[in-house]
Amino acid sequence: MQAIIDSLFTPIGQDGMVGILLIWSGLKVTLAVTLLATLLGSVLGICTTLMKMSSHWYLRWPANLYVSVIRGTPVVVQLVILYFIVLASLDVDKITAAVIAFGINSGAYISEIIRAGIQAVDKGQMEAARSLGLSRGQAMKEVILPQAVKNILPALGNEFIVLLKETAVIGFIGGVDLMRAGEIIRSRTFEDVVPLFTCAIIYLMLTYSFTLMLSQFEKRLKQSD
């Protein structure tokens, strides 16, 4: 990543083009971290949900502790602790550390989203499935989860949008995301308005686009009811 930054600052004739390239590089980092962290968070969320809904206390206890700790501390604190303390002895680059940190953070929220979606399905559905001879696992897979998906997917889309905005703190560990790119340009040009408003507009365009796609997706889900 540092090599990319150094290459962007190599004189190419126009300072404006250097800034555009830096913004573009930061935007790609922001989108990559958001996507990968969402995927990691989804895996962690599913596992945590299964643990929390287990009948065994030794599975529920660590899952509840994980959700409580992650939801009770700011994501920037988790990011800094993970990079400078937990992964300090390992040769992990800043972007990978950011993906892990945001993935762990997102996993706690996705876990609650999935749990709420499952619990929103009427309990009679499980009882009816069990009365037909299905095991608890089969009933969950064949009856409960298909109904819960409609409640889960829109909320997961909202989590993706929230995570996109939260990645603006990657600069705390030296990663060059969209916001950090704007800060670098501002420090070099001593111009505050253009780089900061550019970052704000890009974030606004991204969140508005994803929100619009999410609303269209929700309409299609309602039409299938």
Automatic annotation (TrEMBL):
<keyword id="KW-0813">Transport</keyword>
<comment type="function">
    <text>Part of the binding-protein-dependent transport system for glutamine; probably responsible for the translocation of the substrate across the membrane.</text>
</comment>
<comment type="similarity">
    <text>Belongs to the binding-protein-dependent transport system permease family. HisMQ subfamily.</text>
</comment>
<keyword id="KW-0472">Membrane</keyword>
<dbReference type="GO" id="GO:0043190">
    <property type="term" value="C:ATP-binding cassette (ABC) transporter complex"/>
</dbReference>
<keyword id="KW-1003">Cell membrane</keyword>
<feature type="transmembrane region" description="Helical">
    <location>
        <begin position="63"/>
        <end position="86"/>
    </location>
</feature>
<protein>
    <recommendedName>
        <fullName>Putative glutamine transport system permease protein GlnP</fullName>
    </recommendedName>
</protein>
<keyword id="KW-0029">Amino-acid transport</keyword>
<dbReference type="Pfam" id="PF00528">
    <property type="entry name" value="BPD_transp_1"/>
</dbReference>
<dbReference type="InterPro" id="IPR043429">
    <property type="entry name" value="ArtM/GltK/GlnP/TcyL/YhdX-like"/>
</dbReference>
<dbReference type="InterPro" id="IPR000515">
    <property type="entry name" value="MetI-like"/>
</dbReference>
<dbReference type="GO" id="GO:0006865">
    <property type="term" value="P:amino acid transport"/>
</dbReference>
<keyword id="KW-1133">Transmembrane helix</keyword>
<feature type="transmembrane region" description="Helical">
    <location>
        <begin position="193"/>
        <end position="214"/>
    </location>
</feature>
<dbReference type="InterPro" id="IPR035906">
    <property type="entry name" value="MetI-like_sf"/>
</dbReference>
<keyword id="KW-0812">Transmembrane</keyword>
<dbReference type="GO" id="GO:0022857">
    <property type="term" value="F:transmembrane transporter activity"/>
</dbReference>
<dbReference type="InterPro" id="IPR010065">
    <property type="entry name" value="AA_ABC_transptr_permease_3TM"/>
</dbReference>
<feature type="domain" description="ABC transmembrane type-1">
    <location>
        <begin position="27"/>
        <end position="214"/>
    </location>
</feature>
<feature type="transmembrane region" description="Helical">
    <location>
        <begin position="29"/>
        <end position="51"/>
    </location>
</feature>
